Amino acid sequence: FRLALIQLHVSAVKSDNLQRACGLVREASAKGAKLVALPECFNSPYGTQYFKEYAEKIPGESTQKLSEVAKECSVYLIGGSIPEEDGGKLYNTCTVFGPDGALLAKHRKVHLFDINVPGKIQFKESETLSPGNSFSMFDTPYCKVGLGICYDMRFAEMAQIYGQKGCQLLIYPGAFNMTTGPAHWELLQRGRAVDNQLYVATVSPARDEKASYVAWGHSTVVNPWGEVIAKAGAEETVVYTDIDLKKLAEIRQQIPILSQKRCDLYGVEMKK
């Protein structure tokens, strides 16, 4: 099946972001994509100072438009993420809609991005955001898909549990920056893919040098062998790739690590 990653240029005008995102979903559908994914914070600039201003309830304006365009185009739409307000708290939340427009999954970013690399970048999502507390998976006729958002990708245990639960594709809307992006963006994706013998796709906003937070870009798809099979540059674009589940099955048969794990010695478990 064909997967499309929309590396969107995000502006400060929410209505423009929504309109352009929906237009690119239509374009991807016309080119045969069955799963279409948007980037982290696709409807607003990324930054703790923006989350409250742009936050919405779910359902709300942005998710309603995602539902409508998923149904119009008959695609599975991974709606990147938006700032969500619920019960007085703010979350970084990804919604997924099916070809009938129904909400299939809602993933709140589990691991908040609180880092300090002296002289390069300091960021603290927990100043404004609350963490999600659950794994998020959804089924398609093609395969089961697991969701994470950006910083979630650094936590190998999360990906391992998705693999244990039968996911063959992991999708991470994310916005790595100009410090962590060159160093770890591709490396982490390849690690998660080869460790668990599954496909990993990441969807970044396009790079905007004038933004307060400059995203690395380079939306990427990695196969279960750890090979990069599709990759964007820094500009707004749509990345297409065909996901071959026969290749996944072959790799798991050739190197059967999943059946060779020493569960008598160690294990990773999902607690809730």
Report helical residue fraction.
Answer: 25-40%
Distance between the termini: 31 Å
Integer average pLDDT = 96
List how many beta strands DSSP finds: 15
Q: Structural class given helices, strands, pairing? A: alpha/beta
CATH architecture: 4-Layer Sandwich
User: Biggest sheet, open or closed, and with what strands and sense?
Assistant: 7 strands, mixed
Number of helices: 7
Oligomeric state, counting identical vs distinct chains:
single chain
Describe the structure.
The protein is of the alpha/beta class and 272 residues long. The radius of gyration is 17 Å and the shape is globular. The protein contains seven helices and 15 strands. Strands 1, 2, 3, 4, 5, 6 and 15 form a seven-stranded mixed beta sheet that branches. A six-stranded mixed beta sheet has the order 9-10-11-12-13-14, with helices on one face. It has one domain: Nitrilase/N-carbamoyl-D-aminoacid amidohydrolase (4-Layer Sandwich), CATH 3.60.110. Strand 9 and strand 10 form a beta hairpin. The mean pLDDT is 96. Helix 1 packs parallel to helix 3 (61-73) and helix 4 (156-164) packs parallel to helix 5. One of its GO terms (biological process) is asparagine metabolic process. It comes from Machaerirhynchus nigripectus. Its EC number is 3.5.1.3. Residues 1-245 form the CN hydrolase domain.
